[in-house]
């Protein structure tokens, strides 16, 4: 009772903090001074150097940081994030709503199922002698498992959390192989850095059934995923002791040991930043090696060893050579065939620059425990003929990508990974490493055949010493023969859905399955069988760099056409049948050699109904073209900037245009900025200057930087109805107006149960006179039929879950809604007028049971009540894709023998009743 009361009081206190902050902001606001910072890393076409990688990381980081930070307090608080998560878990699901006529929504994956995102961990299951069972982890995508060698994957981590997976390990002991662990939290390369936390880890998760299901280890739980408050927020590596079964964790700045009850700090590097990297390696006899990066104190940086890894039974000794001088991350690899040999690859502090000092950015040493001596092999690291920054000589981007591995049957056959992957077949005899993956050559940045740059994992199969798997920024790949003169790779990114989309867009033409997205560090991709993709979930990669805004204009005579670009403003128009790619990045007419400045995630908007109209955000300046099919870099029209027009520099973050045929009297453009203002520009195709725009900002919205407008949704048939969203914590975040065309629209705050959420996107749909409002949040997708009277219900709990919903694109002609997530790819739904299927009275899920569960061959359905026979059923995987269906089920038994192991959902219909249950296939 006391515990319940204490929890209740704590919740009330957190709520009071939020309400007080909001109360203060609605009156005279006193905002913490947060400077807007514009970062302009190198454009696409040149690989990132160490400095540029840092600038990229900071730019991505700031993009997300500005969308979260509470402008009243100047921080992203643990209370804000915990309240958001708690409210998410308390929100009703769509299927549980007992009243209100709400259309049914069923979500299907739109991929990319054939392209992978950033992957730091790949492990081959030792208990499957075929070598076909693997478990891999996508950073922000989750944990995936395959039992057929990567022909298909099943997501096995829960969708109700965001898993920033960095390391996976299997218990190597005989009889314990079903126990697995994965660690979370990326300290290098993610936006988890000093200027704003986003997606630190959630500790360590354990599976005791071969990776089918996972549970968080409570002893590693942190307070918030967006606040660094625990060393388990960032985990570089995990290892299980082969004789004691103890779990070792290389966390930020420390080596930790878990004996099943208690965590003990074995080596403490006194972490001072998220880049204080560590590593761990354990021999089959139980000797433990630990590494500390050169960012630590000089007294602990380098490599240590202990005969047991336990300070009470095996003293730790430092084994650095006298000239062993890491300045950054250090990674380790034991030679499986001779575990006295330990290879150590580390950042040496060199910043290679082809214009000044091209040089290898790492050193490689080998420790021999039998002789207690080091051999320096750094001179053999690759420096090929020619030079290209970050590509050659051997580049590691400050340790962001750094890995070393040894062939299981040959102690001298060594592989390394940085920007590229390399091998040396005899490190004693051979002169240098040769390139086997990443970029094709030192001459430029074309991709190595069927492989991706930025290498994080190089893992041999325990059943075939020639088979190697790689984890990269492009997912999972494999080669069947690492000894081949030219190593051939196969992509294993088959339903390994881990893409981080910033923006997505759907073809405005009814019936088309053409979609497009701009993704973090994976450029622009398109999907759809109508444009040549092999399936509705497959994508075709088209542009590199960091993806930005996207649009499909369907210009006459083009065949396939789209707009895409990359970071800091670069914009291309593609017309398949005529010009192909044309760069249309706006150039200043007064200075023809100067491009208009833009933000890192470049934002522009193509009117989906009048596609020749395109609006481009050059920070706070609005650029326009009414001839999108022919616009060039020099034919944009500047409509001035917010500082000149309104006296404050609002950088545009969101645009929206009215639907239907363009009408100079009624059509308008909405513009939302990063200082909280919303402007309405009437007749935008003919406007001369944005000074004629009307400021229609909700009176209680937070004004001042940063207050990010993230969504502006105009009703598809009623221009007076607008839904506006803001993303910052501590501010009022969802507003609705029904008189948007008035000189001074009246706004209603409609956050309701989402008052604690960071709101990222918005859409309004209409089917048969029924309006439905959608918002994408940092914790999933929500909808309501009337936000003024009805709470928001969480959509797609088994498909989208709590993923960050970054973008929504609606096509009114056939009611398709495309959902873009930052970590789990795209999903699509058709909004239908079918309210009976979602009324609580017809949901018989609670009267339905499955057995056996987990199931191996045949699953039985049982119903508590006389409902009759199942008229049809559908089994979907955790990504929402249908894998098995049927009709007229007489025996209430279903053969699931051919399903691969994983988590599934069975949906049944009996007359007008329906039910859904989860089961596990083993």
TrEMBL record:
Keywords: Signal. Residues 850-920 form the Secretion system C-terminal sorting domain. It comes from the Bacteria. SUPFAM superfamilies: Oligoxyloglucan reducing end-specific cellobiohydrolase (SSF110296), Sialidases (SSF50939). The keyword Aminoacyl-tRNA synthetase does not apply. Residues 1-21 form the signal peptide. This is T9SS type A sorting domain-containing protein. It comes from Hwangdonia lutea.
